[in-house]
Every structure is written in C-alpha cells, then in structure tokens.
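Entry 12.
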Amino acid sequence: MKGNQQSINNNGFKTKRYSENQFFNIIIPVLGALIVFLSYSLYIKLRSNDAGDFNIKKKPIPSTVQVEVLNGCGVSGVADKMTSFLRSHGFDVVQIGNYISYDVEKSIVIDRTGNLINAIRVADSLGINRKNVIQQVNNNYLLDVSLIIGKDFSSLKPYQ
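Predicted 3D structure (tokens):
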C-alpha cells in the first residue's frame, strides 16, 4: 500500500498511514515552540512593568510647558507683556484672553494636567508666591498651566 492509502483496523474504522500524519508530527513541535516563545515574551513584558524594576523607562517631563494667559485685572496690555516674558523664558503660550471677571486680586497659576511642577516653574519665573499655585486637573484642557493675572501684576518680574 502507498502512503496516501487508508486501511481498516480491527474495529472497522478507517485509519491513515504514518506518511499522512507526518505533517502533524512536524507542526506540533513548531506550535509548542511558538507557545513557549510567546509565554516567555509575556513574562518579560510583565516583569519589565513591575514597579520594583529599576530599568523602567519613565515618561520624560516635556521640556516645553504650554501656558494659557488670562487677564483677570482688566488692565490693557498686561496679558501681552506676560506672554512675551513667558516666551522669552522658554514657555509655550498657546492661548491669550480675558478671565471671566476683572476682580482677581492676586495672580494665580493653575495646574491643569496633574503635574504641579510645571505650574510651580511658571510661578517661580514670574515671581508669584507658591501659595497661589493650585491644581484643577481638567482633561478637556489641551494645555499644562493657566495663568490668571491679578491686580498685583505690577509686583511681578516682567514689571520690575
């Protein structure tokens, strides 16, 4: 009989010859090796995400802080002067406008992304007291920090 022929065993069932099963005899070790490889890859991936692993690549802090400058004192030109000052100090002012009121006494820096260090950098560069740095995380904002210029603007660094 040839390799592709079938024979009937003692129970009356058709059986295939060894040559027809060679494909399965080859594919089973290949699939086994693939499963071992994928399992090892998963293990390495999960291990590298472990908090105790010191080889974790942390997301770098962006060097450019995106800032919104809002005039809260009502004095014309203040937002433009603050914008020029911030840009000259490496900040990316992406929006300039008026605040909802002009009754803001002290200038405020608001962290919008949960990265308070960026708001502190803005406050320090302008000479704003760190007590006036607050967090209001809002994922709808596409910027890092909001600056609301208060009536104390003349005591800030751009005016000194």
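Annotation: The chain has three helices and seven strands. Strands lie at 6-8, 14-16, 66-71, 92-98, 108-111, 133-135, 145-149.
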